[in-house]
């Protein structure tokens, strides 16, 4: 009698557990990075999306795995913290500052600014030039006594408008917006567009939207899932050894 072999097979528990461990390791690394940047102005929490995936193995049999499919960014606003510094600004809404590092132009939510020796507006961390809406520099004349920045980004030196801080956005703020470190984001090949859907608030900064409690819970859950997967792998190894020992005795 011909027996038809099904194309779908149950993947060995050890292999599934190993893929789960790899996914949990990614979750743990992302949560650790979030906590490390919890006090960085404008930093956005990253999240890992876990999915059950399948691949075709030998004989077209379906192999099941757990994987960290995507790393997503929480685009929600962080809390506003007043500093009293007239060069500190926070974005409220969907938008980014554009800074020129000298090696390229990148996006950032960090509004901690300063002035260089020429009076140009720069980032306090890294000394990158802050771009205006038209892509140029914003220069504050020397001897200026009062700097005011309105909700649309207009920068006034003693009541005279000297430039407008640009706020930009891109179509894909997830996979195609790459983290470079130092709170910089690379838009890649995406086109930048000026956005009117956000406002700027002076005399303070946007804090990160990282929740220490949430990230701590994620880390604990990732470690628990990792340990659970490890037990499955150990049990699979023990089962395999028993089968091997029984087979050896039968052969003998």
Helices and strands in order, then pairings?
Elements: H1 13-36, E1 46-56, E2 62-73, E3 80-82, E4 89-93, E5 97-100, E6 105-108, E7 113-115, E8 121-123, E9 129-130, E10 147-149, E11 154-157, E12 160-164, E13 168-169, E14 178-181, E15 184-186, E16 193-194, E17 198-202, E18 204-206, H2 212-251
Antiparallel strand pairs: 1-2, 3-18, 4-17, 5-6, 5-9, 7-8, 10-11, 11-12, 13-16, 14-15
Helix pairs in contact: 1-2
Strand content: 25-35%
Gap between N and C termini, in Å? 33 Å
Q: Identify low-pLDDT runs.
A: 1-10
The whole-number mean of residue pLDDT values reads 86
* String of helices and strands: HEEEEEEEEEEEEEEEEEEH
Count, helices: 2
| Count of β-strands | 18
Largest sheet: 3 strands, antiparallel
How much is the radius of gyration in Å?
26 Å
Structural class: alpha+beta
Assign a percent range to the helix content: 25-40%
Task: Describe what this molecule looks like in 3D.
This protein is an alpha+beta fold. The chain has 2 domains: 13-76 and 210-246, no CATH class; 80-206, no CATH class. It has helices at 13-36, 212-251; strands spanning 46-56, 62-73, 80-82, 89-93, 97-100, 105-108, 113-115, 121-123, 129-130, 147-149, 154-157, 160-164, 168-169, 178-181, 184-186, 193-194, 198-202, 204-206. The chain has a 3-stranded antiparallel beta sheet with strand order 6-5-9, with no helix packed on it. The protein has a 3-stranded antiparallel beta sheet with strand order 10-11-12, with no helix packed on it. A two-stranded antiparallel sheet has the order 1-2. The protein starts with 12 loop residues before the first helix and ends with a helix. The relative contact order is 0.20.
């Amino acid at each position: 009698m011909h027996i038809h072999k099904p194309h779908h097979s149950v993947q060995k528990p050890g292999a599934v557990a190993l893929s789960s461990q790899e996914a949990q390791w990614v979750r743990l690394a992302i949560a650790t990075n979030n906590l490390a940047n919890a006090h960085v102005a404008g930093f956005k929490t990253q999240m890992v999306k876990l999915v059950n995936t399948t691949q075709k193995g030998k004989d077209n049999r379906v192999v099941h795995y757990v994987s960290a499919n995507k790393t997503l960014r929480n685009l929600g606003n962080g809390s506003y913290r007043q500093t009293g510094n007239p060069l500190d600004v926070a974005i409220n809404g969907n938008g980014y500052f554009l800074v020129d590092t000298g090696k390229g132009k990148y996006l950032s939510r960090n509004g901690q600014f300063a002035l260089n020796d020429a009076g140009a507006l720069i980032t306090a961390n890294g000394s990158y030039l802050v771009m205006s809406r038209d892509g140029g520099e914003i220069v504050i004349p020397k001897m200026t006594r009062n700097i005011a920045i309105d909700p649309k980004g207009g920068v006034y030196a003693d009541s005279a408008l000297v430039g407008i801080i640009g706020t930009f956005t891109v179509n894909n703020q997830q996979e195609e917006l790459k983290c470079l470190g130092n709170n910089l984001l690379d838009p890649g090949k995406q086109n930048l567009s000026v956005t009117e859907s956000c406002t700027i608030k002076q005399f303070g900064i946007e804090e990160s939207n990282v929740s220490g409690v949430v990230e701590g819970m994620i880390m604990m859950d990732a470690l628990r899932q990792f340990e659970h997967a490890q037990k499955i792998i150990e049990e699979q190894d023990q089962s395999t050894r028993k089968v091997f020992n029984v087979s050896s005795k039968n052969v003998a």
